[in-house]
Amino acid sequence: MTTSNENSPLVSKDDGSHTQERHPPPLIPMGLGPETNHDDDMSAPEPTHRRTTTATTVEIFGCAVNDIVVFFVLPAMFYFAVVVRVAAYVIDVAWDGGTIPTGPYRLVEAHVGGDFFSHYDFYDGPDSVGSAGHNSYVPRSRAEELGIAGVVVDNGGDDGEEEFAYMSSAATHSGPRDSIRLEGRTRFDRGLFVLDVRHMPDGCGVWPAFWLTDEARWPMNGEVDVLEGVNGQTTAKTALHTSNQCDMYAHVAPYAKTGHWEMITGIPDHFTGDPDYQTVKGADNCWTMAPHQWENEGCTVVHERNDTIGAPVNANGGGLYVLEWDPVGRYHEGLKGGYIKSWVFSPSIPQNLRDALDTAGMEDSSKRVAPDPLSWGLPYAYFAIGETTGCSADHFKHMRIVFDLAFCGTVSGNRFTRECPALAKTFNVTNEHGDNDPVSTCNAYIESNPKALEQAYWKIKGVYVYERELEHQRNKFGQG
């Protein structure tokens, strides 16, 4: 028997007569819990669920270093790279200013001659619920069959023969007239829009319009009425229609435009319903539901002259209607924020604008004259949008050009008795109370197919759309 040390932990006493040798406790392989027991097999195989590591792998808090790299280090490196890129972009914009559309205007579309209708879709169906015109819009094939849409050729005098887009309407047995509504195929977020019109629809019960909108998201994406004639009016107006928080009050200086805000009175009292003629205010809130304005009136500027639309312009052989929509503004000219401006030129036209249109058809774009609105004089309408204004620029976006020719409806119809009193007396239609119904009276007049409606047609030389070139913006340090 081998002699052993009595104090050794491997030796124990048994009733004092002899000693008993003990084995040391078995080693527990890494990864196994204390319930695992291999007393009978000191060389028990390594459990299959244990992670095999290399000599360079270290475990921290139960995770291998490889896990930490995959789940923590790599994502951190990715996000750090993103932050660096974003920071670099911000610094670049702050220092270099980035590029924004503030350079010279360049022609992007010209709707002229035989190519005019290729830029538009013909809407097919009744007028919208909001307008409720006494007419139905027809597709191109039907319009051409009726002779109410097409390209006409006239003797242009010194210029020889010229092509014009022609649009009108036709009477029907059912009552509402067949008419035309064109919807542009291109969407815009800015631009200079020039309408060269030689004759526009005119007369009582007639409601033509040239405008921009995104009808699918109206009024969130805005509406701009460039030319809108009602019952033979002769004074041009420009109106904006938007969602809430688009107010021009105190944001448009009187010297920025030659026209004036349309004045409003007679709005029914909110509680009694009685017309309030004591309150008179300008229509300077573009929200369609603005308080103290008529529903969907929007912000409206009226031209200072009463010969800027309809019959007087037709008598002059037409005119130019120009809209400048610049959501950014030209910072290097000292302007803050963007704007929407409009002009009417008839019969005189600024030389720069005349040269721009005369050279628009040149194949060599370098020979085209760039329109310069700053050389034309003050616009009659000015609306402040964007930075530092009461109307953010995103109230107007994704809009397209629309032409239409409507009759009566919610505007021309409701105003028919007041603005065409002689005809209203002749075609008077009363309601159940025996009072004149202006819309029904207007409809009765239109259904009579009067000879006066022969003047209700469009004759358009062209539509020209320009956009500014990109150039460096002045940075926040005043450098650019």
From TrEMBL:
Signal sequence region: none
Basic and acidic residues bias spans: 12-24
Protein's UniProt name: GH16 domain-containing protein
Annotated PANTHER family: GLYCOSIDASE C21B10.07-RELATED, GLYCOSYL HYDROLASE-RELATED
Segments for region (Disordered): 1-49
PROSITE patterns according to UniProt: GH16_2 (PS51762)
All copies of domain GH16, residue ranges: 93-348
InterPro entries membership: Beta-glucanase-like, ConA-like_dom_sf, Glycosyl_Hydrlase_16
SUPFAM superfamilies: Concanavalin A-like lectins/glucanases (SSF49899)
Residue spans of biased composition, Polar residues class: 1-10
Pfam families: GH16_XgeA (PF26113)
